[in-house]
Each structure stands twice: as structure tokens, then as C-alpha cells.
UniProtKB/TrEMBL annotation, chain A:
<feature type="domain" description="GCVT N-terminal">
    <location>
        <begin position="13"/>
        <end position="267"/>
    </location>
</feature>
<dbReference type="GO" id="GO:0008168">
    <property type="term" value="F:methyltransferase activity"/>
</dbReference>
<feature type="binding site">
    <location>
        <position position="200"/>
    </location>
    <ligand>
        <name>substrate</name>
    </ligand>
</feature>
<dbReference type="InterPro" id="IPR006222">
    <property type="entry name" value="GCVT_N"/>
</dbReference>
<dbReference type="GO" id="GO:0004047">
    <property type="term" value="F:aminomethyltransferase activity"/>
</dbReference>
<keyword id="KW-0489">Methyltransferase</keyword>
<dbReference type="GO" id="GO:0032259">
    <property type="term" value="P:methylation"/>
</dbReference>
<comment type="similarity">
    <text>Belongs to the GcvT family.</text>
</comment>
<dbReference type="Pfam" id="PF08669">
    <property type="entry name" value="GCV_T_C"/>
</dbReference>
Automatic annotation (TrEMBL), chain B:
<dbReference type="InterPro" id="IPR002930">
    <property type="entry name" value="GCV_H"/>
</dbReference>
<dbReference type="InterPro" id="IPR003016">
    <property type="entry name" value="2-oxoA_DH_lipoyl-BS"/>
</dbReference>
<dbReference type="InterPro" id="IPR000089">
    <property type="entry name" value="Biotin_lipoyl"/>
</dbReference>
<protein>
    <recommendedName>
        <fullName>Glycine cleavage system H protein</fullName>
    </recommendedName>
</protein>
<comment type="subunit">
    <text>The glycine cleavage system is composed of four proteins: P, T, L and H.</text>
</comment>
<comment type="function">
    <text>The glycine cleavage system catalyzes the degradation of glycine. The H protein shuttles the methylamine group of glycine from the P protein to the T protein.</text>
</comment>
<comment type="similarity">
    <text>Belongs to the GcvH family.</text>
</comment>
<dbReference type="InterPro" id="IPR011053">
    <property type="entry name" value="Single_hybrid_motif"/>
</dbReference>
<dbReference type="GO" id="GO:0009249">
    <property type="term" value="P:protein lipoylation"/>
</dbReference>
């Protein structure tokens, strides 16, 4: 048992007034859902949804050698990221194991914001501080400096445009710019974790309620609804996006997770984990380990994380995430399976659901891709 | 939320109707349905099965979790709600009505079923 008191976001009272079912998530009391998680999911796919993501961990890295420090500490080439752009990357251990997956925004030539998962924010902060030794750069814990509100879904550009003069048309996916939304200073980023177009707004916590209310009002006519973490999980699962603790862990390298492309060996200088990752890259070419695949149920029973994937009476893998997919109308899962069974359409694959082997189809990820 | 006065309730959050010709209807309460979230799959006992009070007789699967279904009484299953098998969301939308789960010819009732008021207090605590 942890003795750490549970943390509340700046929007806590608002969530309660909206009747949210709350849940403990990485030490934070967060909204799980407000009504039906399926309705929230569908709203994001077809209209818009509003999320409180203030539990995410922001870390600012600044100084003349900020980009050099990040190139050393992370597996990506952050020095090549343009000002105003964002990059999906990872921080690994010396042995190549994934400490966390991150989004890094380049706010200026010498300033970056690293966004870590809530459950790993302290680990990432500690690693960055440790790895900053010898670099002319400062690592600052900004977890309490920001609230994070996401508006996601096809109606989100229209909703946001009604509240800001910022040039959203010129704001590409994985880009961010400072601006004002509903009179509140915000870093406006075109990022998200739902598979839809959308924005993440980093603001001071004292402005969070005002911004949430303005977005709610602006979205009234187009069906925007508040959304909890439950639908966030089914949205990201349909979009084939990994979740730390499920698809990613310290016992896997990015190559084991099918995300070797985030590792940039060609960048200048050494980086933490390079040697182990070079070995992992070679191993994955020559002798592929288990492969992350999608599974779609033929029946209606739902696979859960940790359930065995089976074929011919043998265990050939393990489910990492599973849920009923509101968009497909069937249960889906991500799973690591032996390479021999990983090809889409492989026959005879099932999931052991509490003793019963339910048939599943192996498919390529993602399950859902939005039409652009 | 209000729990219908005419029903009785188990501490596993099932409700039981009064018996008609010895047959009672079983469902789960609104409190339980809300706690589960959107129910996406139900596995019910089969007609003719013998169920025991307080023992597992099926499964309720929601987006986030799977829960055992217990029978509040002992007896023989006389009917299952095919509508809810085909549309599990009835458990959420009408837990005390269209979302009923099965009917049972009651052989024996445990003595600890709760009244509506007792269950309301129990489920609030």
C-alpha cells in the first residue's frame, strides 16, 4: 500500500458536478466515465469529446545544450525536430528496456517540453536529471505547472477555431504553438491518443475550469461530450496505439514492441541504450521475437490483458490489451504472438478466455484508421 | 437511484421478484449495472439448469471487467431473457425491467435477502 495521498486535478470539482465515476489512475483521482463509455467513445469518433489529462507529466528541458541532452537521454533524434513540432519517442534503460514512451514538443531553439505518462513521470524526471550531468541544460519538473485538456474528434477543429485566433489550418498533426484559447494562454498542440484529429491544450491549472467551460459551451451545438479514461483506452486500442504497462515495459525494447523505427542510430553522439538496442535491432531482423498483432473476436467474449493466445493447443502469445470495440462491434485485442502465427489471417488462433478457447482472427494494426 | 419496493435483494446485487406460481425473476440492480459500466456480453444459465443460492450461474462482461453472476435463490431455471443475450445493453438501460436475466422455480430461499430500503442502505455503504 502506498501512503502517498491521492492527487486531484484542477478540474476535480467540475468532474464531480458532472456526475463522473472516478477512478484511481497512477495516484490520481481521474474520471473513468461520465455516463456510458460507449457513447463517449462514439462521440469522439463522430463528433467530439473533451478529456482532462492533467495527470500527464510535463518536464521542461531548456538551455543551450537542451537538444544535445535529449539526444543523449532519449532514443529519438530530437535535435532534428523543428521549433513548433512534436515527436513521439521513448526513453530506454542501458539494457534497451523501455522506461516510458513520450511526446516531446520543441517550444524554441533551446526549450523542449517532455510529456511522460502519469505512472512514469517521476522515473522519467529522475532519469533526465541524472542524464543531464555534463550538459549545459536544465531539467525542470513542471508537473504542477500545467493542466492538460484534450478536445478530440472530427468537430474539434471547428470548436477550437471558435475560441482562438491561432492559425489552426497551418497547425499540422504533431505540431504545437503558443496561443490564446477563450482568453486563456495555452500551448495548442495537434496531438492526441484517440486516432482522431484533435488538440491538446496545456494551460495553467488556475485556467483549467474556465477553458473546460468555454470548450463545453462552444461544443454544445455539435455534440461534444465530456469523456473519461475508459473510452480513451478503447479509442487508443482501436487506433493500435501502445499503452505503457500493457504493450510497453522495461522488459521489452522498442524493437520487441514493433516500434524500432523510433530508435535513431544515425543521430550524432552516443545515447543511453545504444549498444543494447543495436543488438536488439539485429536480433529482431534475424530471429524475430514475438510480434505485436491485432486480434478480432468472432464471438462476443472479451479478451483481457494477460490472457493466453493459443493455437493447436499450445500457448503462442499473450494478450496485452483487450476490450469490446464500439466501432467494430466486436471484441478486439492487441497481443504479442510468436512470429510463426503473426501473419494476418493465420488460421486456428484463439484466446483462452477463462478456460474456453474462443476463435480470433489475426489482423494488422490498427483496427481503425480515420478517413482524412 | 431507486430500488423498486416490491423486489428483494441479495448482497451480490441481484434482485428477485415475488413468485408467480412459484417462479421468480432475477436481474441485477441498477447500482450493480452502473458499477459495471456498459455491459457487452452476458452468459446466462440454461433452461433446466439447477442453480444454488449464492453460487455462480453466469457471467456479465463489461468494457472494463468481467463479473460473475450469482443466483440469489436455489431452484430450476425456467426461462432466460434472450433479448438481453442479444442486446446486453438492456442490463444498463432497464435493469429492473427489460434487462431481467432469468426466471427460476424457487426451491429454497436464503434467509438473508434484503428489502428495498435495506438494500439501498447496503449499496450506499
Amino acid at each position: 500500500m502506498s501512503s502517498t495521498p491521492i492527487r486531484h486535478t484542477a478540474l476535480d470539482a467540475l468532474h464531480r458536478s458532472l456526475g463522473a465515476t472516478m477512478t484511481d489512475f497512477a495516484g490520481w483521482d481521474m474520471p473513468l466515465r461520465y455516463g456510458s463509455e460507449r457513447d463517449e467513445h462514439n462521440a469522439v469518433r463522430t463528433r467530439a469529446g473533451l478529456f482532462d489529462l492533467s495527470h500527464m507529466g510535463e518536464i521542461t528541458v531548456s538551455g543551450p545544450e537542451a537538444s544535445a541532452l535529449l539526444n543523449h537521454a532519449l532514443v529519438g533524434n530530437l535535435a532534428s525536430v523543428g521549433v513548433g513540432r512534436a515527436r513521439y519517442t521513448m526513453i530506454c534503460q542501458e539494457d534497451g528496456g523501455i522506461l516510458d514512451d513520450l511526446i516531446v514538443y520543441r517550444l524554441g531553439d533551446t526549450e523542449f517540453m517532455v510529456v511522460a505518462n502519469a505512472s512514469n513521470a517521476q522515473v522519467v524526471l529522475d532519469a533526465l536529471v541524472e542524464r543531464s550531468a555534463g550538459f549545459d541544460a536544465v531539467v525542470r519538473d513542471d508537473r504542477d505547472a500545467y493542466a492538460l485538456i484534450a478536445v478530440q474528434g472530427p468537430e474539434s477543429p471547428g470548436i477550437l477555431a471558435s475560441l482562438t485566433d491561432a492559425g489552426l489550418d497551418g497547425l499540422k498533426y504533431y505540431a504545437g504553438l503558443p496561443g490564446t484559447v477563450a482568453g486563456v494562454p495555452a500551448l495548442i498542440a495537434r496531438t492526441g491518443y484517440t486516432g482522431e484529429d484533435g488538440f491538446e491544450l496545456f494551460v495553467k491549472p488556475e485556467h483549467a475550469v474556465e477553458l473546460w467551460q468555454a470548450l463545453t459551451k462552444a461544443g454544445e451545438g455539435v455534440g461534444l461530450v465530456p469523456c473519461g479514461l475508459s473510452c480513451r483506452d478503447t479509442l487508443r486500442l482501436e487506433a493500435g496505439m501502445p499503452l505503457y504497462g500493457h504493450e510497453l515495459s522495461t522488459s521489452l525494447t522498442p524493437f520487441d514492441a514493433g516500434l524500432g523505427r523510433v530508435v535513431k542510430f544515425e543521430k550524432e553522439g552516443d545515447f543511453v541504450g545504444r549498444g543494447a538496442l543495436e543488438e536488439a535491432a539485429a536480433r529482431s531482423r534475424e530471429n524475430p521475437p514475438r510480434v505485436l498483432v491485432g486480434l478480432v473476436a468472432e464471438g462476443r467474449r472479451v479478451p483481457r490483458a494477460g490472457y493466453a493466445v493459443v493455437a493447436g493447443g499450445e500457448v503462442i502469445g499473450e494478450v496485452t490489451s483487450g476490450a469490446p470495440s464500439p466501432t467494430l462491434g466486436k471484441p478486439i485485442a492487441m497481443a504479442y504472438v510468436d512470429a510463426a502465427h503473426a501473419a494476418p489471417g493465420t488460421a486456428g488462433v484463439g484466446v483462452d478466455i477463462r478456460g474456453s478457447h474462443e476463435p480470433y482472427e489475426v489482423v494488422a494494426l490498427p483496427f481503425y484508421k480515420r478517413q482524412k | 437511484m431507486s430500488n423498486p419496493q416490491q423486489l428483494r435483494y441479495s448482497k451480490e446485487h441481484e434482485w428477485l421478484s415475488g413468485a408467480e406460481d412459484g417462479v421468480s425473476t432475477v436481474g441485477i440492480t441498477e447500482h450493480a449495472a452502473n458499477a459495471l459500466g456498459d455491459v457487452v456480453f452476458v452468459q446466462l444459465p440454461e433452461v433446466g439448469d439447477t442453480v444454488a443460492a449464492g453460487e455462480t450461474c453466469g457471467e456479465l462482461e463489461s468494457t472494463k471487467s468481467v463479473s460473475d453472476l450469482y443466483s440469489p435463490v436455489a431452484g430450476e431455471v425456467t426461462e432466460v431473457n434472450e433479448d438481453v443475450v442479444n442486446d446486453p445493453s438492456l442490463v444498463n438501460s432497464a435493469p429492473f425491467e427489460g434487462g431481467w436475466l432469468f426466471k427460476v422455480r424457487v426451491a429454497e430461499e436464503p434467509g438473508d435477502l434484503l428489502s428495498a430500503d435495506e438494500y439501498t442502505a447496503f449499496s450506499a455503504g
